[in-house]
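Batch manifest, entry 17 of 40.
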Amino acid sequence: MTGSTETLLAHNLPDMADAITMPVCMMAMLFLYDWRYGIACLIPVVLSFAVMMRMAGPAMQENMRQYDPAVSRYEATQAEREKVAADIRQRGIRRREFDRFAAEPEKLPDAVLEFDDALWGSLVDYVTVSKDKTMEFALIGGTEMKA
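Output type: structure tokens
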């Protein structure tokens, strides 16, 4: 059974039968008890059918045709915004870590005030020099810096 056949048999036909049977039975019962109540209740049913036909007409189809691409664009924009927000949070974390790291030597009582070859050698794992004369330092612990 295809999707459209399943939709027709499982959804559309029962809904149509319910939409026809319920008002007809309601009107029959109301006319049996008091015909004035039947007439009074028939007016809102007719009005509701008219409103529903207007809502589900060509204008609704045009709105849905415009709605689906708009939802797709919104979801793509939302995903991009979440990606950018995560990137901003990650950069903020890195910035705070760097600021804490940079402030730490100032707290030491015997801070190194000049370049120390032994200290530098204990921090650097390896240095890569590229053809374009840029240098990439790999520090012990996995941090990499380009200069």
